[in-house]
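Q: Given only this backbone (318 positions), what sequence would you predict?
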């Protein structure tokens, strides 16, 4: 009797081969291979327009600021003469001062009124949503329409809209934008009316991120409404304040349209700001090199202000 001594089959020899699936990271890497350019393909039209209408003009303006620009005759290199002209011009000094005053006034007014509106309209009620939409309306209205609206309300005669209201409380008629003594505050009020609703919406977003438990704890401790705002709301909005300050300050330093449409820098230069002066130097007096130098200086001032605020914010958060 013979015994079959055949070797046993290897374990797993009759099992089908198992196909291994790639690891998640490897799969994602393989999916991206050859497709990294897809997002840039969609962004390309906007980037091309942005480069053509933003960066190229900026570089051209910097170049022009060192030249005596003579259209159709050729530009001549003058070095820093244009900057010396701008920095030594009394009109430019006055325009910078007016710009700073308007920027401070509009920034402070917009943030204070925006915070007050946000505190009044915080909540989820449908009525509050309607009020927030109505309050935000000045932001979406074109600035040209806003300026024309306020120019009509600032009519200097006794039957003007705002003068009629002043007459009801026994105050005499004001010249508003036609009076050198009141033209600056009139421009600031217009800017605040348009900028406060924008700040309100950002404050509302910041208020939504504050822990409700802090308010409940303050209520248990017997804190009043004012103390809750002072010790809970304002510290919780610290980052929002820094962001809004930068945005509002830049908006104030670049103020142009409302001043140009309301007063065009008048009367007697009382509301002349940097942007209107640059516009007049470059396009009305055909001193393009001097105007470009003023624009570069204004850009540098805005950049320094932004970096300064960011450094302060990082030091405070550290």
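A: Predicted residues:
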């Amino acid at each position: 009797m013979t015994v079959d001594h055949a070797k046993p089959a290897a374990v797993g020899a009759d099992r089908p081969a198992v196909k291994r699936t790639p690891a998640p990271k490897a799969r994602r890497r393989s999916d991206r291979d050859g497709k990294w350019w897809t997002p840039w393909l969609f962004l390309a039209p906007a980037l091309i327009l942005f480069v053509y209408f933003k960066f190229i003009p900026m570089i051209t303006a910097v170049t022009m600021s060192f030249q005596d620009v003579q259209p159709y005759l050729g530009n001549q290199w003058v070095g820093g003469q244009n900057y010396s002209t701008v920095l030594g011009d009394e009109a430019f000094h006055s325009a910078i001062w007016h710009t700073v005053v308007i920027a401070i006034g509009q920034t402070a007014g917009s943030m204070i009124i925006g915070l007050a509106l946000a505190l009044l309209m915080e909540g989820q009620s449908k009525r509050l949503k309607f009020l927030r939409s109505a309050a935000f309306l000045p932001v979406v209205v074109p600035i040209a329409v806003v300026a024309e609206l306020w120019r009509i309300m600032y009519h200097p005669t006794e039957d003007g809209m705002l003068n009629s209201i002043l007459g009801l409380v026994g105050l005499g008629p004001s010249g508003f934008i036609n009076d050198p003594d009141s033209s600056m505050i009139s421009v600031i009020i217009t800017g605040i009316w348009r900028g406060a609703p924008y700040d309100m919406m950002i404050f509302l977003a910041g208020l939504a991120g504050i822990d409700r438990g802090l308010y409940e704890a303050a209520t248990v401790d017997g804190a009043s409404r004012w103390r809750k705002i002072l010790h809970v709301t304002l510290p919780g909005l610290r980052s929002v304040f820094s962001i809004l300050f930068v945005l509002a300050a830049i908006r104030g330093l670049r103020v142009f349209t409302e001043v140009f449409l309301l007063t065009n820098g008048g009367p007697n230069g009382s509301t002349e700001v940097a942007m209107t002066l640059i516009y007049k130097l470059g396009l009305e007096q055909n001193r393009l090199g001097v105007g470009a130098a003023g624009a570069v200086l204004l850009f540098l001032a805005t950049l320094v202000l932004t970096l300064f605020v960011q450094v302060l914010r990082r030091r405070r958060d550290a």
